[in-house]
Amino acid sequence: MGTIGSKLAWLLAGLGALAAVTMAPAQAPVSPLTPAATEARPATAPKPAAGGTQQLSAEDVDAWLDGYMPYALHTGDLAGAVVTVVKDGQVIAARGYGYSDIAKRKPVDPNLTLFRPGSVSKLVTWTAVMQQVEAGKIDLDADINRYLDFKIPPRNGQPITMRQIMTHTAGFEEANKGLITYMAGDVVPIGTYLKRYVPPRVYDAGTTPAYSNWATTLAAYVVERVSGMTFDDYVDQRIFRPLDMKTATFRQPLPARLAPLMSVGYPQASVPPKGFEVVVAAPAGSLSASGLDMAKFMIAHLENGRGILDPQTAAMMHDSPLAKVNPRSLIPPLNRMELGFFETNVNGREVIAHLGDTNQMHTSLHLFMNEHVGFYVSFNTAGREGAAHVLRGQLFQDFADRYFPSTVRDGRVDAATAADHARNMTGHWQVSRSSLTNFVNILNLFGQMEVTTDAEGHLLVPGLKGPGGAPLHWVEIAPYVWRDANGHDRLAAQVVDGKPVRWSFDLIAPFMVYDRVPASRSAAWLVPALYASLAILLLTVLYWPVGWYVRRRFQSPTPLAGASLRSARAARMMALASLLVLGGWFWLISVIFGDGAPGDGVLLLLEIAGVIVFVGAVGIAAWHVAVAFRDGRHWTRKLWSVLLLLATLIVLWTTWSYSLLAITTHY
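User: That's the sequence. What structure does it adopt?
Assistant: Structure tokens below.
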């Protein structure tokens, strides 16, 4: 899912490819890095319920988790995790697995060890917003500018509302710069953070789900403005204190009393840890809390907002009226956004949830509303090949299958119609959560999702893979609705005039969708053309020293003179300059999304150089073509000059259409 701290390249390549981890056997081996589970009670043998459905009890869930988690941590190269389960207002499982600090051999304590749940923090922020809605200080459908001391510009004459912010349909492009750092000095008041840069609105309000950390921070600023309290003070006094969440805080760095409880964060358990992550957009993801305190938060929401919201307000937050939602933003029957929560319905059960990621820690929280059950898991490690992402999703699904098995029976679309619908879906699609006005836009070229068909005409999305790494097998169960034949997830399209124009799948549908890429920007032709252009530029540059060596070796005269020589040399110089600037962009993007910070000056230099070089290269190449044809050169030289011109045009088109020529330090 698209939550904070995820690498943007991964987000744009699919965001949440559906994978699974093999469930651990009942007697799983324990990793040397994994101590025995921290127990709240001795586990006893599980007692199966009648009819084959396992009874959700403290004894059974403890035994199940103790068989599942140690093996999963070991195979995923994960240092530690915490799991809490609540039912009917009580904590029935609070389990710590692995280490919070490997070097000190300090085990995870579900009562005390602090994890960073990333974007699960947003649920606290949204709860604060709903408290102010309840108090009559925020109108969900009013222009958000009513509450601000700076202005959010309209788009096509339309302002944005708090409801649109809470459903991630305000239309902002992604704001990536400085989102997570390791420097305590980067912490600033949220008003200061917001006023530094207002991301462009790239979609009309209410029409397109596009997850936004910046907009969440804006909502928290509104809470500050209408309550007269800082956000940190507000959540401490109005949410954490009433719920007795003694370890919970949004403050960065941590208060002295909590700092010793903080788990270390690891890229992998087998590599050195990273420091404390500073989330600059704090209300979007800076929460630190123990598993037990998150259990208290789940209970409050499962019990109709007990202690923090009136039941009517909680009900509106958990099941927002469809009449208030623009149909364009929905793809029925897929999961949708509520007011802050999003659906993760499974096995016919109504489940609302949130996922969260920092760079190192990865979390999920799910509330089975009608069953009054909550499930929370957080990992302090990303793991081998993103194992934590896979494990948190599969753990939730396995929990649901064990205790709340499905009674849903899918339909089936006839083979001929299914084949026709699959063909209509083919093409390249771009995810809505993206940057469109700055250099990060270039990742949209390489992150387009391809949809095609297999040899039998079935829908095939190569970017959505199953547990074995192979693409998922989609079966059409209703017109333009597919289900993974071996799992829970659905994929569906929004159809206009008989043609699919937008699609998504259950895991991300509440906050991200895929729209068809215009032909002029499609990776289907543009990526091969770009690679061919780079090859032409490189060969043009290499011909320079090779030609010089051959002439010197065989004492051959230079075949060109005058304008012909000057145009050829200029063309080669611009080819070299183009490759150097493109290489600079490759380096810069690698550094920025690899936790580096080269500075705004380097970014501006590359942007200005790109404008000069890529535009200049086209002009020089055109001159070179004119000279080559005027001089009556051999046809091979004429052909190469034309190919060089086409290569520079392709590079210019790519860099212009994907914003490498935008002069801005914001991204």
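The longest strand covers residues 90-101.
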